[in-house]
Specification:
Length: about 300
């Protein structure tokens, strides 16, 4: 009996040992395969502001699976990466990619974030023009100018007109990124706009000849609106009320207001007099006279009572 129990215990131990060995070998094989599928990716150790030059202390290396690693990443911290300028804000633990860096040799600061073919131009703002500190970097604005028409125009009344549309804000004062607090945003007196050379000429003329107003627009609204401008006559003509759309729905147009039509009052019906009612009412039918059926041989007839 004891030998049988001992043999059973030894066989069970061998079976459990074999299962454990197979499981460990599979785990090690999977771990080795997973390790081979990992790539070294350089990520940001701290937040890197836009327009700043990258230093080694801001970077570290992490391992990413090949299937999820972004394109254009760096595998090690070397001279190809150190000294490059960030053209966008890079948050901590985000990978450093080539698309987020300015070309080699670019200067740090605002010039590194200006695309090719564009210019950066400053515009003075106040609490009204600057929308009370809501104008932040990377927001889109339209520029409205209030100006007098040329000398050949006989009316000589001031008009307001949208002269530039869909203009990107590059900087808010000295900040290429969002200010740290609201007080810093309210102290800003200038904003830097990204414009083409032709737009820079119009903006310079508009700022010298009239008063500028910045109008914020939705970041997904890239449409071009053609407006005739506004003067005193069009201002006093009034405006119809439009329904308020849901926020963030830049692709949907607001429904046009329905035209209202005046309803006609119902005409009063003529009141019928007693005489007309009497003439129009039909005479009541006479009640039927009582009758009896009389059978005489093979004949039948009805006899009415008087």
């Amino acid at each position: 009996m004891r030998n049988k129990r001992l043999i059973i215990a030894v066989l069970a131990a061998l079976a459990f040992g074999l299962i454990a060995a197979v499981s460990v070998s599979r785990y090690l094989a999977n771990a080795q395969a997973y390790t081979k599928n990992l790539n070294n990716v350089v990520i940001a150790k701290v937040d890197i502001p836009v327009g700043s030059r990258i230093i080694a202390e801001q970077l570290t290396v992490a391992q990413f699976p090949r299937s999820v690693a972004p394109e254009g990443t760096y595998g090690k911290i070397d001279d190809k990466l150190i000294g490059r300028v960030a053209v966008t804000r890079i948050a901590a633990r985000e990978p450093i990619t080539e698309s987020r860096l300015a070309p080699v040799g670019s200067a740090a600061g605002l010039s590194s974030v200006i695309p090719e073919g564009y210019r950066a131009m400053n515009v003075r703002v106040d609490d009204v023009v600057g929308i009370s500190g809501f104008i932040m970097p990377n927001t889109l604005v339209d520029i409205v100018v209030v100006i007098e028409p040329p000398d050949d125009d006989k009316r000589r009344e001031r008009i307001s007109k949208i002269v530039l549309q869909n203009i990107k804000v590059l900087a808010n004062g000295q900040n290429l990124d969002k200010p740290k607090n609201e007080k810093e945003a309210e102290r800003v007196k200038t904003v830097t706009l990204q414009v083409t050379p032709e737009q820079a000429e119009k903006l310079a003329l508009a700022s010298s000849e009239g008063r500028l107003q910045l109008v914020m627009r939705n970041s997904i609204d890239q449409g071009d609106e053609v407006t005739p401008g506004a003067n005193k006559k069009s201002l006093l003509s009034g405006e119809r009320a439009l329904p308020i759309p849901e926020p963030g729905l830049g692709g949907k147009e607001a429904p046009a207001p329905r035209a209202t039509t005046a309803r006609r009052a119902p005409r009063p019906r003529p009141v019928a007099t007693n005489e007309a009612v009497t003439k129009a009412a039909p005479a009541p039918a006479a009640p039927p006279r009582p009758s009896i059926e009389v059978i005489e041989g093979s004949k039948k007839k009805n006899v009415d009572f008087p």
